[in-house]
Amino acid sequence: MTDSKTDGEAGQEAGRNAGREAGWRAGLTTRREAGWKAARAARRKAGTERHKPPGKFAFLPWLFMLTGDVEDLFRGEVPLPWLGGLGVVAFAGLYALSVFTGLDKRQRTTRYPFLALGGLAVVTYALTIGYGGDWLLCFPLLSLAAGIVLRRGLTESGRRLGVVVLVIAGSAGVIASIRGGPTETLTVAYGTLLSGFVTAAILSLFETVAQLRETREELARSAVERERLRFSRDLHDLLGHTMSVIVVKAEAVRRLAPRDLDAAIGQAADIEAVGRQALTEIREAVTGYRDSTLNTELDRARSLLEASGITADIRQSGPPLPPQSAALLGWVVREGVTNVVRHSGAGRCTVEVRGETDQVRLEITDNGGGVGSGAATGTSPGNGLKGLTERLAAAGGHLTAGPDGRKGFRLVAELPVDSESEEDHRS
To answer: Which band of pLDDT confidence, cut at 50, 70 and 90, is reported for residue 420?
Structure first.
């Protein structure tokens, strides 16, 4: 009895240990996955932030260039220090306003950045002409603000920016020669010229990179949408035709079973064959390697029409077609015959393919009620005919569909044939 309890307790302890170990491993796996996801998100965020343009506050530290002027004001080494103090405050405020509005996407095309830049220019010329000396460093800051504001938003913004920066740099050199010295003339003029152009070039480069990245993402989204549209068209054409064949042959089995068992078995065998072929085509469609030839589709069209009680007249003439042209016309035969079976109520259908040296013409006509996926009734065409029209247009051909006289429906597809591709196909 004691041994059994001991064994039971040992089993419970082993179970608890196994549970704790499993929980610890699961927790470790979860933490690792969370860590990996966080690391990937951090890398993506870091990559995005690395390509972001400088923000609004990135240009404010340049105001420290006026530290020496502010010290002169506090020491009283300049005349009318209160007026100089007001000028520094006005310069700093207008500079910050020019930078903020010039970098704001919503305001940089308005008049506010230009008004702020004009006020900044007035204050700059007043301070430099009145005081000279270190106050000449206001010109590089004015040029920097001009590079931010004028880099875009105006007609021929590059030319306007160049003219404005050259004028600012030239006037800075002239004022420096009057209020400073020969060495300051070249330094201030060169610094002013470089400040405006470099700032505009850097910001324009960042914005161009951002636009290229957005364009690349938009192209990727467009490519995905086009691929989805192509695949949806393929799937519609593939399953629409296949399901129509299965339904028609299933109805034939139901009608023939009571009086002709052998014929019903033959139709059931056709259903099995069509189903297997559909599975194969679906797999090929998913992998993108589906090959729908014209001859195969013509044989299927004859089988479908005859199973539906419609007299089929299939004609084909002309030289062999290139694989791409044959595959595209195979889709037209598939969609056109499917519409005849579904909507026309016809008793006879003619499918004629006439190939020539430079083009091929496919015509599908019936003697039914004149209904074909909405095209004959004046409404918008169905997805099948719309998709075929887009495909033929992309290949240089065209598709027309509509009533055939008083009764019936006609679908005509014309497609140019590449002679080089045809010779390659023959060889």
So the answer is: very low
Length of the chain measured in residues: 427
Distance CA 392, CA 384 (A): 12
d(CA 362, CA 159): 59
CA 146 to chain centre: 35
Encode pLDDT of 95-123 as tens digits. Answer: 888 888 888 878 877 888 889 888 888 98
Amino acid identity, residue 109? T
Fill in the DSSP letter of residue 181.
Answer: -
Q: What's the number of CA atoms in the CB half-sphere (13 Å) around residue 100?
A: 10
pLDDT tens for residues 193-224?
888 888 888 888 888 888 888 888 787 777 77
Kindly state the tokens that stand for 145.
Answer: 């603000």
The answer to whether the CB of 312 falls within 8 A of the CB of 300 is no
Q: How confident is the model at residue 378 (pLDDT cuts 50, 70, 90)?
A: very low
- Residue 360's φ and ψ, nearest 5 degrees, are -130, 145
Cα–Cα distance, 389 to 3 (Å, whole number) = 84
> Can you give 274-316 as a three-state secondary structure string?
HHHHHHHHHHHHHHCCCCCCHHHHHHHHHHHHHHCCCEEEEEE
Strands (E), 150-266: none
Strand-pairing partners, residue 45, are: none
